[in-house]
Each structure stands twice: as C-alpha cells, then as structure tokens.
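Morning, I've got a small favour to ask if you have a moment. Here's the protein in full, and shout if anything looks odd to you:
***
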Amino acid sequence: MFYEDGNEDMPSIERIPAALMEPFLEKGHILFTDNYYTSPSLATFLLGRNTHLCGTVKSNRKKYCKEIAEFALEKGEAVFYRSTIDSRVIACKYRAVKNKSGNKQKVVYMLSTCHSAKMIETGKTYANDSAIYKPSIVRSYNSHMGGVDRVDQQLHSLRTLRKSYKWYKKLAFRMISQVILNAHKVFQHETGKSKITFLDFLHETISSLALINPAIPNNQILDDTLSRLTGRHFPSLKVASPDAKDKRPTKRCRVCYAKGKLSAKCQPLKTTYVCRFCPSEPGLHPDTCFEAYHTQVNYLL
C-alpha cells in the first residue's frame, strides 16, 4: 500500500536533528527519533545523505499517510504503507497486545527507511499458546530508544510541570528532576538496592533535605547569631510559669531539631535546660548540644 511525500523544505523542528546529524551523514548511520521530530520530509532528506531514520511519528504529521490512521486494528495487528516516491520509506501502525490504563487502546505510528513490512515473534504467547508477533520496526525502536522513553515515563509520573509555569521554571524543574533520577540510578548501582523505586527514593531525598536545617524564625537567627558565640553562657533549668500545670517544663532542643533528631515517637527531642543569656532562650541539652551551639559557627557539623 502506498502514500505520498514530497521534497519541500523541512519545518524548523525537523531541521534540528538534520543539523545535529551533519557530522555523521554519508556514513550509513541510523537515526532514532521520537514523534516530536520524525516526519516523511526528514526521512527523505536523510536518505539523500546515505542515512536512515526510524522513529515514532504523529498520525497527523504533514505528508504522513492519512489512510493509516483510519485503519481499524485488533490487538497485536499491524498495517504497513510504502511511499510512492521512495519505496524504502515505510509507515506502520501497530496496536499493542495490552491496552493502556483505562482500557484505552495503545496504538503506535512508526516511520522507517531501514526496515521491511515484517512481523517477528516476541517470545511471548497468548492464553491459547499461540505466538505473539510485533513489527520489526517497533522491536528495533524499543531496543534503541527504550531507555530514553523510560526516563521520560519516570519523570512524567512526578507531574511537577503546569501549563501556567514560565518556560525557565519548567526548565529548572526538569533539570532538578533529571538530577534526582540520575542519583537514583547511581544509588541502585552502588548499593545494589534495585528494589527501591524512583518515587520512594525521591521521597527519602526530600525528607532528608527537609531535616537538614529546619526553618527557624528570622528574628531568632539574627539575635542569637550575634550573641551565642560571644560572652559567657551557662545552662539553667527552664522556669515554670506560676499557673503552669507542668512543674518541670521542657523546650525543644535547638541543636537536635536542626539536625533532625527525633524521639521514638517521631517527636522533636526536648530538654528541661535553656540558655537564659541568649535572646531567644533556646532549649539545649546541657552536654554536647550546649557546647556546640555556643562554640561552633555551624553547629550542624
């Protein structure tokens, strides 16, 4: 079956991979692309430079076969169309055996200049033990682009982006997410803990960062910074107010809280001792916490 393409100038989006491939043209390489860049125009251009193309493509892409989108398929079926201009350019529509969430059909559109209209066994079988087949185009694409798609799939699950965000905010969120994903891969490789999912790793990372230095009111930081490292300081018991029911009042230890230390009940550690010579009268355990707070610029170390 056939579809038509032409030799018009490529749109700006398709010029990007063409420009990036410039040093590698005329060498018989195969370029794998996702549906943002793949098009018949790009395929024709690369063929003219002894370079092949294989990738997913949007069904409404200009000069892509219109009939293929209307072709109804059952699960595991595929249909192929060949270009009338260059028979090496093949379009493919494939419906996966498994549906997406919500029981929606999982249909993929492909374009290739280095594959034939061939179905190959996947090594899996249906319930009746008959073999499951898949287009060779899809198999080849998955083997070369599977890692890229998995990265996008993992980052998409975060849902950190909103349409209302400025482009530079989207870029920043994407870069941060990518850094954390890379850290997760390194963590799995170095520790051997491959069962820890990306979302669990992300949650643990955020929790750890949040406990490194909990927020303290600015006025307390300013006042205490000026006085805690100078003068003479002595621990003393916190005095209960006259109408207090608790005759041994406690206060959260400033150093333990900053370090993220918690009690067995996951509550901030408290102490009956304070420093009355500091403006905010911070709660401090009378041993190491009191000394660290009054002698170290960064008492978290």
